[in-house]
């Protein structure tokens, strides 16, 4: 069977196990969502038995819980705090180490070959987040070599989101809930079948050996109906009209004082965000061996020292200033820097904020102040 990019097929759910097997034979480690201690996490999976079959999530500001539905669906549980970001931008990465050697110093760079990974069940908002990270780390003027290697070693099996959480607003951000591009294979879960769309030549090579039949208009319509239902179910939204200009004109708004009083400065929103990319570089030394290592670690614009200037102190000394920096960068100046919003509407920052701060409410409040 000749398979081309853009083709669509139907496979039985059992054939997903065959796909996982083929990916491992091709040298990929397979990762996907699974249940661990009451949450959805992204971990290695061996078969569909590892996926969160019959689970959905109940999310609201500051709250996340799993619910067992009793269904046989595999991908209804929307993501938890985990994102795919660590697969490309690790939370801790060794850059190089210096060790004493025969009275001299030896400099060794980390040259670990990135693992080939197949990510199973990547949502549309998460694909958009990967694209945002690509714009950050694969710029024309600078390309992060580690990120590039890890990116080139990814195989992406995306999935249409048919059961968004109450904190999701991907439709408002134009990133979902249906997968549009940026994948190798895309799945839409339809009863006991998957509609499979081929997005790359690598994806086409994996479909050829599966028991797949060409998709019909019925299957495409069923997927479109599920997408429309998912769009209608989203209760949160953001009006993105001239949003960067709105935020720039609201830098002195009293709303920042209100949200600053609520914010715990815990950095949770930046840690769970799939697009935040701030990092710090630290040196660690072992006095016993004389070994020194330089490490890149995730950082957050909520950390007070993140804006520290030698001789000038903290640029953003208050929680109000740090929250304002995060929100105006994410939804405003990010567009000027990278040509796209830094928010993909996944809702993680809402769900995992212990104070229940809702980014969609903050934008709406600023619009109301501006008389819009």
Describe it for me?
- This protein is of the alpha+beta class.
- The protein has 2 domains: 8-92 and 110-233, no CATH class; 243-278 and 301-369, no CATH class.
- Helix content is 32%, strand content 25%.
- The protein is built from 13 helices and 16 strands.
- It has helices at residues 15-25, 85-88, 124-137, 145-152, 170-173, 201-207, 217-233, 243-249, 255-262, 268-272, 319-338, 348-351, 359-369; strands at residues 8-12, 29-36, 39-44, 55-60, 63-68, 92-101, 104-109, 117-122, 154-159, 185-190, 193-198, 213-214, 279-286, 291-298, 308-309, 313-314.
- The chain has an 8-stranded mixed β-sheet, sandwiched between helices. A 4-stranded antiparallel β-sheet has the order 7-6-14-13, with no helix packed on it. Strands 4-5 form a two-stranded antiparallel ribbon.
- Strand 6 and strand 7 form a beta hairpin.
- The chain is globular, with a radius of gyration of 22 Å.
């Amino acid at each position: 069977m000749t398979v081309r990019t853009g083709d669509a097929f139907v496979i039985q759910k059992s054939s997903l196990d065959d796909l996982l097997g083929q990916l491992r034979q091709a040298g990929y480690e397979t990762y996907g969502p699974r249940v661990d201690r009451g949450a959805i996490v992204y971990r290695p999976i061996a078969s569909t038995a590892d996926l969160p079959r019959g689970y959905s999530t109940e999310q609201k500001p500051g709250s996340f819980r799993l619910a067992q539905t009793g269904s046989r669906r595999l991908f209804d549980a929307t993501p938890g705090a985990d994102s795919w970001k660590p697969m490309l931008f690790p939370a801790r990465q060794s850059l190089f180490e210096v060790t004493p050697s025969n009275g001299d110093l030896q400099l060794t760079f980390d040259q670990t070959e990135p693992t080939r990974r197949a990510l199973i069940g990547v949502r549309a908002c998460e694909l958009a987040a990967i694209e945002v990270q690509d714009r950050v780390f694969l710029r024309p003027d600078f390309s992060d070599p580690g990120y590039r290697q890890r990116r080139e070693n990814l195989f992406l099996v995306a999935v249409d989101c048919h059961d968004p959480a109450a904190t999701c607003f991907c439709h408002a951000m134009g990133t979902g809930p249906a997968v549009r591009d940026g994948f190798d294979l895309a799945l839409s879960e339809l009863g006991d079948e998957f509609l499979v769309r081929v997005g790359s030549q690598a994806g086409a090579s994996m479909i050829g050996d599966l028991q797949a039949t060409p998709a019909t208009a019925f299957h495409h319509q069923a997927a479109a109906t599920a997408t429309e239902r998912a769009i209608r179910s989203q209760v949160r939204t953001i009006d993105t009209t001239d949003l960067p200009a709105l935020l720039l004109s609201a830098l002195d708004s009293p709303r920042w004082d209100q949200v600053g009083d609520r914010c715990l400065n815990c950095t949770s929103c930046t840690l769970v965000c799939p697009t935040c990319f701030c990092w710090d570089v630290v040196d660690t030394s072992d006095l016993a061996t004389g070994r020194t290592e330089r490490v890149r670690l995730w950082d957050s614009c909520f950390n007070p020292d993140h804006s520290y200037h030698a001789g000038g102190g903290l640029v953003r000394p208050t929680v109000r200033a740090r929250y304002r920096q995060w929100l105006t960068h994410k939804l405003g100046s990010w567009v000027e820097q990278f040509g796209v919003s830094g928010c993909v509407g996944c809702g993680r920052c809402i769900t995992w904020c212990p104070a229940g701060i809702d980014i969609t409410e903050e934008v709406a409040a600023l619009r109301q102040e501006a008389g819009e």
